[in-house]
Amino acid sequence: MSLDATYVAATTRLPLLDRREREVLQLVALGHSRNQIAARLYLAPPTVEELCTRIFATLELTPTPHLDRRVLAVLTLLQSAPPGTP
């Protein structure tokens, strides 16, 4: 599957994320660390890690040596944004 097809497929699964998972995904995409996300959302860092694991499993996105979680999060959210959204 091509990268574009992967992100299109992942965006179709975004509605499967709950509100908290979507918040974490957005913060990952913005470049926040696990500890920063934990502090901002009043969660323990291991909880954030569990959420990230669940998010990427739900979206069926697997980090590779060339694509890390942050890149995958950004690309998925960009793919889901309405046209003309920065």
Automatic annotation (TrEMBL):
Superkingdom, natural source: Bacteria
Coiled-coil region(s): none
One annotated GO biological process: regulation of DNA-templated transcription
An annotated Gene Ontology molecular function: DNA binding
Name used for this protein in its record: Uncharacterized protein
Originating species: Nocardioides simplex
